[in-house]
Amino acid sequence: MNPKPETSYPKPRPALGATRADFPILHQQVNGKPLVYFDNGATSQKPRSVIDALVHYYERDNSNVHRGLHALSMRATDAYEGARTRIAKFINAADPAEIIFTRGTTESINLVAHSWARAHLKPGDVILTTEMEHHSNLVPWQQAAKAAGATLRYIPVLGADAEGGLNLAALDTLLTPAVKLFAFTHISNTLGTINDAALLCRRARAVGAVTVIDAAQSIGHAPIDVQALDCDFLAFSGHKMCGPTGIGVLYGRRALLDKLAPDETGGGMVVTVTYEGATWKPAPERHEAGTPNVADAIALGAACDYIDSIGRDVIAAHDHHLGQVAMEKLSAVPGIRIIGPRAGQPRGGLVGFAFADVHAHDVVTFADEDGLALRGGHHCNQPLMRKLGLTSTTRASFYFYNTEQEIDVLVGSLHRIQKFFVG
Ligand code: C6P
Question: Which of 40, 44, 350, 38 is nearest to 190 (CA)?
């Protein structure tokens, strides 16, 4: 049995329901029923303060950054760089230059897979990852391994429903000095498993492997301190933490980022250009070619402020609480198979489940009639689905604005669906 992750949960705060007032989108009817938004794993909703930050920028400050000496350009540059500093604080990075703005988790991971892997991997080297990775933290490593003649290995998941999480005992044989890079998810988007990121980074460091944490599902859901985790890279998307789509972050240790060759080249990231060649600026500009996504970066800073006004430990406790309530109530639905950690075990705020006789797309379509927004499919986890003997699951994923009453709507809907299809 794996040791329990180093996670403790304070009591959930019932007043969190009051945050719903901050989210204009939540106050609507869908198919004549109050919207129950349980698709937060795919993308979170945006509070008024984040929407206002976007509007304010476009109404007052819109200009290109770094290149202008006029008032608007200087204001836009200050706000853009201010957002970088805010985000560095949000994950406790030692230096704002360690924050590279990208389009999201996928682009962040690809940046490392292209730039770091191209420079450091050789035939015989090993990239280690896990069997529970999203395609965005799997396919880039397959491509990098193929290009370098390296091998990609996977830490297995334990149990018929992957209820045992990662098989940490396998680390003893898999995590050898041949492993040059270890990429793993913090929270699984399909299982809800919370991996002990600090432990995994410690183990990787002992063999000299560089670590990449996919924090797509944990950012904005739990406190993240990159210095305490002692990771080399951490990737996340703004849209899953109350921020806009189209903006994300690659955190990297400054020493690594400054040595990394840029993946994209062009304006803004060069010091000198001649007809023969060019030289690169240090991080972060070195990795941000072209006009950046200024407005969304600024709004991501506003999302950090909003989330910290609630408290990420409070959000983690609420996620855990709703996860446990959902586990208990969904277990009573006839014919349901729940994947991921068992009741009582740590789990992120999501529950994935399947019915033997009802396809996930039918579940989602029927639930939509009840105002529920769920997600059905393979969740960009095809190899894991295959391993579990499934083609798809339905997923309900929560955030701090969700309530226990909404879980009752889900349970009622599932009973109705089960009765309709199975009788
Ligand atoms: N998961 C989900 O519904 P992007 O698309 O770049 O913002 O995030 C990619 C990604 C990477 N890793 C994990 C663990 C993720 O969950 C995601 C996005 C969404 O689960 C869309 S498939």
Answer: 350
Q: Is 380 a catalytic residue?
A: yes
CA–CA separation, 81 and 420 (whole Å): 55
Domain boundaries, the chain: 18-40+312-421, 58-308
Contact call for residues 144 and 113 (beta carbons, < 8 A)? yes
Task: Give, in words, the CATH class of 58-308.
Answer: alpha beta
Cα–Cα distance for residue pair 421/320, rounded to 1 Å:
31
0.90 surpassed by pTM: yes
Q: What is the pLDDT of residues 117-133, one digit of tens each?
A: 989 999 999 999 999 99
Instruction: Please list, in sequence order, all residues whose beta carbon lies within 8 angstroms of the beta carbon of residue 255, skipping any fewer than 6 positions away.
Output: none
Give the tens place of pLDDT for each residue, 47-60. Answer: 999 999 999 999 99
Helices of type H across 57-214: 71-90, 105-111, 117-120, 139-148, 171-174, 197-206
Find the residues whose C-beta lies inside 6 A of ligand 1. 41-42, 104-106, 134, 136-137, 185, 189, 214, 216-217, 237, 375, 379-380
| Domain 18-40+312-421 class in CATH | alpha beta
Q: How many residues does the chain have?
A: 423
Q: Is residue 398 within 8 Å of 153, Cβ to Cβ?
A: no
- Ordered strands of the 350-355 beta sheet: 336-339, 350-355, 393-397, 375-377
